[in-house]
Queue: 4 jobs
Job 1
Amino acid sequence: MSDEAERERLRLTFDEVATAYQAARPDYPDALYEDLLAVTALPPGDRILEIGCATGKATLPLARRGFMITCIELGADLARAARANLAAYDVTVVAGAFESWRPPAGELFGGFGGFGLVFAATAWHWIDPAVRYQRAWAALRPGGHLAFWSASHVFPDGGDPIFDELQAVYDEIGESKPDDAVRHRPGELPSAATDIEASGLFDVVQVRQFDWEIRYTAEEYIALLN
């Protein structure tokens, strides 16, 4: 199976667990949103586009700050859950693929999209890399911002040994770590800056890393794995 076909297959699977997604997936730290707004200086009530909102985990903190948000969500069940979770806010959830979505003609700004920010929370890697930067750029008004982030494990000195202890289980079910797997320390995750700059579409690139710890019960961790 090609990388493209495998990416397409895997990104569709989240819709199968829409009911559990909201409870199981972790929230992002408040410092991330505060830094995002400090860097972008978005005016109150500005228009934002989110790619792959799922159930609205990353949407809610920005909706609570009064922004007008349009969300594009591939999964129909996830989109329905997001609409329910965000019903009290100025949020529109559109079911569909970002790669084929276009802003309504009435929302264009000088031929561009009218959004001050396009963002994706742990969803950017699912978007077709051949078009994702171009599609995001086209949705922005001049001077707009693109932001995307992910939640990756890091391994501090003296951290919880659970990942080592579980490795035998992963080996048993045929999900062993690749031989070239890297255990990143805090602050040492790979940066997407080179990839962003290579698009030729964004003038100023800033990268941040936020470390935070989440503790799970056994039942909560199993739910996360599911």
Job 2
Amino acid sequence: MNSAPIPRLVRRTRSVSAELAAHLERLIVNGELAPGARLPPERELAAEMSVSRASLRQAMFELESKNLIERRQGRGSTIVAASAGATTLRTELAAVDIAIANAIELRDIVEPRIAGFAAQRVAESNLLQLDQVLAQSNENLSAAESFRLDKEFHQLLAHASQNPLLVTLCEMTTDWTEETRGLSHATRTGRRISIEGHISIYEAVGRRDADAASAAMEKHLLDVRNIIAAGPTT
């Protein structure tokens, strides 16, 4: 079985192992590294990423502890599929007829809790991933690109909560509310307000302040609803 190709690592300023773990985890979360894909051998991957094997092993240990990869002697590292519980939850919820209003209410309940748990459990690599999304976000992007980064921010935040069932709920509420939520990115004002909300959430999570993170998420969701209700402006 051939190893999955790994995009180059863009080095920043934090620890090498955290940067590498953040890079690989984001590829897994985005689906660029699909479940079942096999990573290159550690010696080869370390050379490809221009990092030491010690840094790579530390990053791989973190990914393994998050149940994102499986490492076996003689077989290398493989991307792990979703947990059985998360798969069952997705299957059962997919069969339910969900009204948009109900999905929005569920999101209002779930996402502040996700932010709070993320603040309590976030790893340095998770903060790096969120920081990278924010660095790419600005109000001058197209509506489609802005919304793509919005969804990625919330998805990465859910992964930072270290709870696969909350990750599944976040993904499904995103699917259910996608058309409505996309309207909040139709204008530069809406995109700017959305990004400001993400920054507030990120800062609270970075401080490991669960109450502030939950409150920032609640305000962000309210701001998004108000943008949608106001309709197109500028």
Job 3
Amino acid sequence: MVVIIDYGVGNLGSIQNMLRKVGCQAITSSDPDVIMNAPKLLLPGVGAFDAGMQCLTERGLKPVLNDYVISRKKPVLGICLGMQLMTASSDEGSIPGLGWIDAQVKRIRPSDSTLKVPHMGWNQVRQVKDDPLLTNLVTGSRFYFVHSYHVECHNPEDVLLTTNYGGEFHSAFRHGNIWGFQFHPEKSHKFGMQLLKNFAELNQ
């Protein structure tokens, strides 16, 4: 089972529906007891960095998540803003992130001035290394992006996927029990379905 963290940011229904399509029991919850007892967690999110961190703080979820992820080392997947909140900080705001991974969030600055920000639409990814969440990821897989900021990992060993949009950026990472996707797998049809299936079937 996967518990999708409900902290007031993002459309949780589409993620829940996609997980159910791949045969995974999924629920949404903001209850600390439910979250602490989850086999796996998914941290979604859209919108601004500071607003996301404020929502986690107001709901008292930061210490719960730190215990789950850092102390107990149970698997967690961040999507879009959820991925960014796992880092130390963001150019978008002034509030510190969760700090689970040695990374920062930077503004997208394409080298090609004709490319628009936010980066919105389908784009291919390049696989940097093997990982259980990337099992059966085919060459040329395309995912749906909507973002104006991207994660910059300081440790190259944490990078799983990169994407080019007027310059290469890190579009997926893994650090131990922590994964993040900048794109929206729940909106990426068969490609995203495969990655969520891999997370649902993960044994850790």
Job 4
Amino acid sequence: MISNHKGGRLIDLFNNARNFIYRNARPIEFALWKYHFENGSKESVLEALKAYQNDDGGFGHALEPDSFNPGSSPITTNHAVKILDEINFLDSKHEIIRGILKYLESEKGFFDGKWCFTIPSNNDFPHAVWWDCENDVGEPSDNPTVSLAGFVLKVGNRDSELYGKCRNIINRCVEEYLKNDEEEIHTLLCYINLLSYVVDSDAEVSFDTEALRDRLITAADKLLCKEPERWESEYVCKPSNFFHRSMFIFDSISDDLKHG
């Protein structure tokens, strides 16, 4: 049972967060707040999200707040995919999702078998340093590739060329991922999304889903900062990084990750 003192503090924190959102949030974050905490509708989130989608179906215009590139990029399009997943909206007939599939089919921002983490046009607009592009083609990366490819397996037409391409990409990426022990939080989250999409869609893949699941649990436990005093002031991996329905694929996980 939560004590009156602790309960009052939680209420104060919630109200402070609510006031901040109401005073400062963009329409997309405001719609998400309403959806999660005030019985807001999915339609309001979709309406706000649509404003960031370009004619080619990809997303830009600082939906990813650290990059003001108005053009479509794989990483910003993946940000849109995460929002759709967050509100559990994966209707393949909806215009937003049809647009995303069109963008992915175009292979814009796709190089050397993967979608790119950075693209050259980022450099023409204000952006955080990690979105710098140091060449004229982009930086292919598992982030966002495996998340985008998994999204296609979830919502795409199984007879389409894009679906077959994404299945091959996933099989190759997972095979490489299972062989290495390098850990990075954003890449891990993309693989968590991937496994969730594969399990939800019952997609036929060549890798062992249990082996990937075990690998992800180990990686999450390794990356999680277990010093709560650092959570508020440092850019570290926190339990909140895993507050997402995709984590329900983990029916067993270490006590450290469960309880912080």
